[in-house]
Amino acid sequence: MSHSTPSRNVEIISAERYVQAESPRWDSRDGGLGWIDMSTGSFHRGRLDGGMVVPGAAVAVGAKVGAPVPLAESGAGWAVAVDRGVVHVGDDGVVSPIAVDIASGDDYMNDGGCDPTGRFWVGSQSMPRQPHCALWSIDPDGVATERLGGVTVSNGLAFDRTGETLYYIDTLPHRSIEAFDVAPDGTLGNRRTVCRVEGGNPDGMAIDLEGMLWVAVWDAAEVRRYSPHGVLLETIGLPSKRPTAVALVDRLLVITTASIGLSDPGDADGALLGVEVEVGGAPSLPWRGSPPRARSSAIA
Predict the structure, then answer these.
(1) How far apart are CA 294 and CA 262, in angstroms?
(2) 128 vs 137: CA distance, rounded Å
């Protein structure tokens, strides 16, 4: 039984339109926002001011860009999943490799996020769509460990506050939210289905301070809030058909959207959207590695 959906005022909060904006991240270091445009291979940063996203720097990082995560230290830049590995993007725009050739063949990195211990979890997606991809964790030394195989389109993931539970979406073929127990060393166990997501494709996901899961549902023009047990608590209808991912910037739910593949995109398709909700979220957990240049200078 779902709760009745309050009336929500969904606003367009970006002047820019993107082809396939994805993976919004709230940066605890400066309160800014990071996101990517998958179709143009670019990583974007900006800030919220007066209810709008003011764009800042944009850096071309690769043909197939996935998810960004901030590093822990101020000024230390971001780790960004791209192509078949992970790169570091400095605040000066310099791009350096962190881990290369994690994925193979035509597969490429997609969504990801960090756990409370500072590992960067990121999965790949397959072209063509077959279950031969994987979910990895990248430890602070840049070492990648495969955590889950048999993946087709690795998408949203979120850890609870303890880091002991991972919520995860492999969009195809089951269109489900799943949960795993996470051991201290990152080993996954006790795989279970939280719920099936009907009427569209579950994409990016965020967790709020009550431990509830917000999911962008591609092709449904909706963001939905589920309990960890799979109960649908709320549905927010959107003016954009293809929401891709969500982030909670305190109580502002920021939603990235795509215009790709739409024959007649409307004003909101490809925009960043915002809607106020009652329960907020915390900033993006950081990757606790060091920038590659800092590491190499320390070694030298």
Answers:
(1) 43
(2) 24
